[in-house]
Amino acid sequence: MSDYFVFLLWPFLACVVLVGIHVYFGLHIIQRGIIFVDLSLAQVAALGMTVAFLVGHGPDTTTAYLFSLGFALVGATVFTLTRSIQGKVPQEAIIGIVYAVSSAAAIMAVSHQPEGAEHIRYLLVGSLLTVTPATVGKTALVYAVLGLFHWIYRKRFLSLTFGPAKPSRPALWDFLFYATFAMIVTSSVEICGVLVVFVFLVVPSVFAALQTDRIGLRLALGWLFGLLGSAVGLVLSFMIDTPTGATVVCTFGLMLLLYAGIRRLKR
After folding, report:
1. What is the CATH number of the domain that holds 210?
2. Which of 100, 130, 143, 216 would disulfide-bridge 21, Cβ 3.0–4.6 Å?
């Protein structure tokens, strides 16, 4: 049993770090109604990693990270500029287009590579079980710096999303929101893949939003849901020998479905 604990310790700590920051951003994403922006930005970052892979750089290299970050920042700029067209075209449509094009481009890019299929699988569900202490520590440091930035300017970011009053120069703060989000997504995709990043962002935040309108309580409930789902998903993956990322995604979905059923019965 102690061997199991040691084996799952660092993957779980990675989930703690990821859930901690993604639940916060999830509150913004749910409130703004741009549910798939995380999936889209993650796929853009994955496209950057794919380009790095084509020129001979592995997914764990600094060059691959810089490629991913550069692509993600371009995506953040696109989403900032397209928010102003909300009255004519839903921004979710632009987000969906970016996701579809990025996904197709990544598939095309590796279609003639011997390891292309494995690379695409890695981008989708990552490799949580093989995460190293160094990666967890580096990611935690990056997230702590970005989290501190959002804490210092929390009034501007919260008013931008939750209103009713907007901060001065809203376009600048909107870009800073998407840019910091892009930095977080870039690091997350490297660890756990596009699909796990998406569920960490959306599912705990949806659960919390169904419980309360208070932002602080939403954060606490979202963190609780995310940590519980991560622990259960990791243990299940280890016990039944299934891909870790996919198991965590399904666990989050089943937990939310179970909650919805209990909520329905109570009513």
Report:
1. 1.10.3470.10
2. 143
